[in-house]
Known about the structure:
- By secondary structure, this protein is of the alpha+beta class.
- The protein has 7 helices and 9 strands; from the N terminus they run ββαααααββαβββαββ.
- The chain has helices at 25-36, 43-60, 64-76, 79-90, 101-104, 127-139, 178-190, and strands spanning 8-13, 22-23, 110-115, 120-125, 153-156, 163-164, 169-175, 192-195, 205-211.
- Strands 2-5-7-3 form a 4-stranded antiparallel beta sheet, sandwiched between helices.
- Helix 2 (43-60) packs across helix 3 (64-76) and helix 6 (127-139) runs antiparallel to helix 7.
Amino acid sequence: AGAWGRRVAAAVTDMNQPLGTAIGNALDVAEAVAILRGERGGRLLDLVIELAAAAQVALGGAEEGEARRHARDAIASGRAAETFRAMVAAQGGDPRVIDDPAAVLPSAPVVRPILLERSGVLGGVDAEGLGRAAAALGAGRRRKGDPVDPAVGIVFAPKIGDEIHAGGTAGEIHARSEDAADEAHRRVVSALEVVDGPVDPPPLVYGWRSEGSDPSRTS
């Protein structure tokens, strides 16, 4: 981008855990729709607001606080969801996904709760391990050319620093078979580090890398 004289900035975000809760194609879309409809909060929404605000600052010269307010208002007013509806329709998709994702998106035949094995504080997550568990379900490719199953995946809700309880539910496995769900459950549970003491959540944005813009925003 810099070689073409284009101003660009990239956020260096935390990837030590899933940004949202969904891992898998249909599950990701359903979560995105919930955020655009103003029905979901959390770190993923926070990042969406930061990125939208940064774009307004870079492209329109908006003040950062005002830009964040505009981004939040776009969601609260319904404009963000309606814009996404128009984008889906323009590309030949079913715009009803905005109103009822479950009626449009494919779903897996097996949905298994993720049951926690011990109480404590979530001290760490093997994010790559969760991704590989989802890929093994069919949500991603092991080799180039492998088919992707849009219905399967993992929903994982806890974040680093959250208190969790043995026997509690951390999310869901969406699978094609009971055996696949069992293996994914084993992988998810083994990807968790549970500790006794308090843990500070990691920062959402570690910094920005910029090209062709104000160097004071580069860290």
